[in-house]
Amino acid sequence: MAGLLDFAARFGTEEQCIEHLAELRWPDGFVCSGCGGRAAWRLKARPRVYECSTCHRQESVTAGTVFHRTRTDLAKWFVAAYLMGRDKRGVSAKFLQRELAVAYQTAWTMAHKLRHGLSEDPSRPLRGFLEADETFIGGRGDPTSRGRSTANPDKSLVVAAVEKVPASKNRKGKHGHAVKRQHGFFAGNARIAVLPAATGAELGAFLKANVATGAHLLTDGFAGYRGRDAALGGHLKHTPVVQDEGANAGAFFPIIHTLFSNIKAWLVGTHHGVSAKHLPRYLREWSYRFNRRHLHGGLEGYLIRRAVECATITYDQLKTATMPGGANRIRRPRAAVAEPALAG
């Protein structure tokens, strides 16, 4: 999409948004989930609802999606997706409140529901050379929760893995400053998660779920990545790099530490800090945007599609941090026979 004016021209009205959601829900035209009928009309009193002309079953374009039973104009939802997807820094709920002229609770709910649909495809794990490490977010300065302790409920253990992609040299046969600082590599895709503890079992489960078999993992000398609990020996090649001091971590693992610095700056700069129970959703948003940073244009189209392909989550579930791993994507199959889809 070209920009804000083009987006507003395409999705500036409720009618345009309904038509787009219908196209995403029924890619080859309406298909009744009850009888398989291919013709339908829309209800004038409830324009989001289509009624099958054969069995008269009624289906809403928002039913079972992130937009399920929303009373907010769909055009505002689409603008929220545009704003979240256009800027690499994302936007805060307070910003959405001002721009959409809605209550803060509504803006907060919209942002978290859109984040709820963002998850990585498990069939596309990280490959090749990788860096992995852990960091802590929140709970600084608490004397009762020193080191790797997570006794402070505001302190979260975050683990990440990122691909190390060899960088090509310039015409002079040299690497640029940033690549040189990263020893001739740049960041590929990444995975990130909040773990309850830095045990071998937790770290091993995270890596086996997100890293392809045969990858080469580089970590510091932390023992959690080694041993029977992690059980990584048969899954990938692991090379621990023992450092003299923790202060040298940035020099040994520049890519992963740059990612951690960017994440913390984003959480503070854009959101002015987030609570521990909602941190997993913010990290999923960051990861989703980071792994698609090279796509032409913004991510708003992807956010809207994911909102249609993922089951909804309620405000009460959001408040209690239910389903921190996000929603599973449901790909809607195309109809076997293409016929005229919608009437009326």
SSE pattern, N- to C-terminal: HHEEEHHHEEHEHEEHHHHH
Class of secondary structure makeup:
alpha/beta
Q: How far from one another are the termini?
A: 29 Å
> Residue share in helices?
25-40%
Beta-strand segment tally: 8
Spatial strand sequence of the major β-sheet: 6-5-4-7-8
Molecular shape: elongated
Main sheet properties = 5 strands, mixed
Helical segment count: 12
Rg value: 23 Å
- Poorly predicted parts: 335-344
Beta-strand share of residues: 5-15%
Report mean pLDDT, rounded to a whole number: 88
Summarize this entry quickly.
With 344 residues, this protein is an alpha/beta fold. The chain is built from twelve helices and eight strands. The longest helix has 16 residues.
Could you describe the 3D structure shown?
The structure is a single chain. The chain has 344 residues and is of the alpha/beta class. Helices cover 34% and strands 15% of the residues. It contains 12 helices and 8 strands. It has a 5-stranded mixed beta sheet, with helices on both faces. A 3-stranded antiparallel beta sheet has the order 1-2-3, with no helix packed on it. The longest helix has 16 residues, at 254-269. The protein is elongated. It starts with a helix and ends in a 25-residue tail after the last helix. Residues 335-344 have low confidence and may be disordered.
Write the layout of secondary structure elements.
Elements (H helix, E strand, L loop, with lengths): L3 H8 L2 H12 L14 E3 L6 E4 L5 E3 L13 H13 L6 H8 L3 H13 L12 E9 L18 E11 L10 H5 L3 E11 L4 H11 L5 E5 L16 E5 L7 H4 L1 H16 L9 H12 L9 H10 L5 H5 L25
Parallel strand pairs: 4-7, 7-8
Antiparallel strand pairs: 1-2, 2-3, 4-5, 5-6
Helix pairs in contact: 1-3, 3-11, 4-5, 5-11
